[in-house]
Amino acid sequence: MTDESPRPPRGPVALTLLTLLGVLLFAGFVALGTWQVYRLGWKRDLITRVDARVHAAPTPAPGAAEWGSITAQSAEYRHVQLQGHFLHDQQTLVWTATDLGSGFWVMTPLQEDDGSIVLVNRGFVPADWCGIHGTCARGPDGETSITGLLRISEPPRLFRHNDPARDSWYTRNVADIAKARGLGRVAPYFVDEDAAPGTLDRGKPAWPQGGLTVIAFPNNHLSYLITWYALALMVLGAGIYVGRDEYRLRKTG
Predict the structure, then answer these.
(1) Is 213 exposed, middle or buried (0-12, 13-18, 19+ CB in 10 A)?
(2) pLDDT tens for residues 107-121?
(3) In-domain check, residue 56
(4) How confident is residue 45, by pLDDT bands cut at 50, 70 and 90?
(5) What's the rounded Cα separation, in Å, for the pair 35 and 140?
(6) pTM of the prediction?
(7) Are residues 84 and 201 in the same domain?
(8) Domain that holds residue 237
(9) 124 with 239, same domain?
(10) 196 with 94, same domain?
């Protein structure tokens, strides 16, 4: 049986490097945790602001004079009202998947009295909806008033891109749709129409089915900040342990 002699104290270079590493890790974890504190406050404020917009009484949709100032932060999910007539012959079907199954969003331009156009998502239809072949009722004709939630134009998807030449659509990208349909003076946003009062037709859903906007903001910032602060405490604890161990070795050496 061999006797194990206690290890000697660490030298000044090793201690300096360990101290620097510990300080950097501790400061980094604290900074990340503090950043998540600010993110948590921002996310809670966003959720409160959007909830207030969604449940507010509808106000007139931003006109052409306001289009340049429209941003997601300032306007998305605002409850708005529009009046005009639908251009059903310029309708676009955008592929989607919802709780009702796979199908399409029915994007129909609505032309206002001043000639400006806003794309309206009239709602969801299943993949076998007869309107795909133009055999179903097109929707309301003449002067129409609708309410809904203002949405910002969607960017292209990573793997599935709009193909106007084939009339194949995967994102509600206002600029792409407007260009493909030859629309002028189009708002840089679209509107998700509210659900119609009568959503059933002889016990079956009436298509298009509006009011299906999904409003979900993942909020994991609390768990993130706890994780970063916990790691900072672990580094601090490890530093205290190493310091006490070094003090003991020097005291008994």
Answers:
(1) middle
(2) 999 999 889 999 999
(3) no
(4) confident
(5) 50
(6) 0.74
(7) yes
(8) 12-47+221-252
(9) no
(10) yes
| Whole-angstrom distance, CA of residue 186 vs CA of residue 109 | 9
Residue 132, in any domain of the structure: yes
Strand partners for 186: 117
Q: Are residues 30 and 106 in the same domain?
A: no
Among 130, 132, 120, smallest CA distance to 95 is for: 132
The full DSSP string for 23-42 is HHHHHHHHHHHHHHHHHHHH
* Pair 201, 230 in one domain: no
Give every CB contact of residue 238 below 8 A, 6+ residues apart in sequence: 22
Determine, yes or no, domain membership for 71.
Answer: no
CATH of the domain at 147: 2.40.50
| Residues counted in the chain | 253
Distances in Å between the alpha carbon of 70 and those of 66, 172, 183, 213?
A: 7, 17, 20, 19
* Percent above pLDDT 90 for the chain: 41
The candidate with the shortest Cα–Cα distance to 147, out of 92, 110, 104, 201, is 110
| DSSP structural state of residue 191 | E
Tokens of 104: 């399409």
| Domains held by the chain: number | 2
| Residues 132 and 197 both lie in one domain | yes
Residues 80-95: tens digit of each pLDDT: 999 999 999 899 999 9
Assign 52 to helix, strand or coil: helix
CA distances from 215 to 50, 51, 163, 246 (A): 9, 9, 27, 55
**H-helix or E-strand containing 147?**
strand 144-152
- Exposed e or buried b per residue across 117-148, where buried means at least 16 C-beta atoms within 10 angstroms of its C-beta: bbbbbbbbbbeebebeeeeeeeeeeeeeebbb
